[in-house]
Amino acid sequence: MPNERGVRMTDGRTTGSARAFELLEPLVQAATVRVHAPPGGYDNPRSHRTGPTWGSGFFIAPGWVLTCAHVVGEGGAAVRLTGREVGITFSAGSITGTVTGRVECVLPERLEERRPGRHALWDLPDLALIRVLAPVSHACVWLTDRSRPRFDEVAYFGCTEDLGTPEITGRTTRLRGTAGNGAAIRLGDDDEIEAGMSGGPVVDLVRGEVVGVLKARRQAGGGGLAVSVVQLRTLPMAARGQVGLYRRIMQAHDLHHYDQHLSDLDNRRTWTDVHGELPPEEGDPYAGRGRLTPGERTTLFGLLAELPPPASSEFVRALVEEARGEEPDPLPPAPLSWRDGLGLLHDPPGGTAEAAAMLRYATDVSVAEYREPVTPGADEELWDWVRATAERLWRPLRRELGERHERGLAERERRRRASAGRAVHGPARRSGGLPPGASVLLEVWAHGWEDLYDWRVSVLAGPAHAGRVTPVDSGVRATLAGLPEALRAPLAEGFRRCDTHEAAALLEVAVAPALFGLAVDEWVVVGGVPLGVQRPVVLRHPAGANPAVANPGGAREHPADREGTDASARWARVQAGPLQDERADCIRGRPRSPATEWLTGLPDNTVPVHCRAADQEPTLGSLHAVRDAGYGVVVTRRPPPDPGASCAPFHRGLREELADAGRAEVLPVRLQNLRGRAYGADPDAYWAAGTGLVWEDPARPLPEEEPLQGDL
């Protein structure tokens, strides 16, 4: 039955959740909006009528509305979603206003190209961001910082017409599980989800934070799906040197609530106020001094938002591991902002107080190297807050944080001096080479004897932690034609973890030589641009490719580690240059198989070149032979569609490129630039189509663990 407030009460609601609903309802309703056609509509622009409701949405930051992609696609199956104008009706106190908004992006991006039929579910995450086109005053919700939801009682809000006019109403249920690898949340059937509520917020009643976006109800009635708001982290990444949309919006979100918390201009309850009034969680082991107070948490988020964003996701994870005492949850999506790192510090292991872990993290952030100049005094203000907050906690913690801060300052100063020294005496790594950080590893291997393939995507930590690998995702029984679509989301997640402000991370493709012709560099993952244009892409021989020389001690043996070869000298010599190319599988266009004695007798700065199909002889045998001879840098090519086309332009262009490069260490990035020129229709780069680079860097060893073989 409805209560006196007109909100349907469910039998299963506890006293605590009923009180939480009562406290949170005004805040959520004030930030929830009705989405419809632009004011006046498309047929009559001068009219002020808004037309029927398409769905709901909610303000997540000043000027930004989050909703579902299928909501902004309502009534316009043939129109492009990004850039489409929509109407937004919202309440500001006792006043209702309508403004125009523009769709800035949708997730996933492929919805612009392929959409489901009418009444069919849209692909996850099915999200859209709308930018309001006028400066208006409005409320914003509080978004969760946790990577995954807790299965507690929740409230969901959206636009309904129970009494004949559109209004924002709320109902309650419980979270029942996840779907879509955590991208979606299952809602219980405690109450009805109406069609106009799509795109509305789902609020955790225990913690007072928005965890999801209503997506769909079950056809038979009862229950439905919501999209986790954490999927906002999958927004397209920014170009180098720019702050991405996700980081910009979350920074605005945190500063909005920080400003509201500090303001004394009105006496309306803020989200921080309500967080302090919510009923305590039963059996909370971190209650009291173990957790930050709501005011402290809001202040910490605001102070972190005042700083430049982190250089990379892996840097955030490293700080979290230091503060938490164990490696954080490796499941996607990756943490992209300082606040995301805080979300990985809830409920730390071993009885460690959550507040202590967050203060350690904040201390490390205050002495970090930032990707751009910091606002004067912002890092010092963060440290001053940490020191003051620790006063109410434990004396040993205050001493520990002080020592941690001093060590961090000294290390930062040491790095800055070293960087200044390199600027004077020359960089430690000459310009044009690969980024030294983490890389994305893609492994593909045959599923038994079938024409199917299993795959795995991981993050390699880089030379600083050689051999350390973090799994991202894996799959089985994919066709070669189906690999690009199967790997789209896992690869995007890997890139989010590894890309930095300075450079796009390296993609390492570890496959058997017969698959060296796999056109990974032409796949499109994000942004509509081929991978090989966006980032360096290199080929690797897979783990266990040569069982007779396997290394039982750890990472898979590199050719440079074997006795009886000159691989170590070859690698060092070819990196320094100058480079000498040598055709390995052809002589003036005719196929040939290189002799072992000939290969081993070539100069150390030689780059063997292959111009024929990698899965056919003599090229397949040659690829194995040059690896056994200790060559860590090898060039391959996917032959052009015309079998009668001469390979002479390829060899001529490559020879000029190697001579101009001078040394091998710049080849992965130069090949990326060549692909970009060809993609931009530069005829002088067309010869490079299909070129691949085998890159067996001893500083980037592959992990010892081999992929499991498929079921036979």
The main β sheet shows up as: 6 strands, antiparallel, barrel
What gyration radius follows from the Cα positions, in whole Å? 28 Å
Q: State the end-to-end distance.
A: 58 Å
Structural class assignment? alpha+beta
Q: How many extended strands? A: 23
Number of helices: 17
What are the segments in which pLDDT stays under 50 over at least 5 consecutive residues? Answer: 1-12, 42-48, 422-430, 546-564, 708-712
Shape: globular
Average pLDDT taken over every residue: 86
Strand order of the largest sheet: 1-2-3-6-5-4
Strand content: 15-25%
Estimated helix fraction:
25-40%
Describe this entry's structure for a reader.
- The strands form six sheets. This protein has a six-stranded antiparallel β-barrel. A six-stranded antiparallel beta barrel has the order 7-8-9-12-11-10. The protein has a five-stranded mixed β-sheet with strand order 15-14-13-16-17, covered by helices on one side.
- It is globular and about 85 Å long.
- It is built from 17 helices and 23 strands.
- By secondary structure, it is of the alpha+beta class.
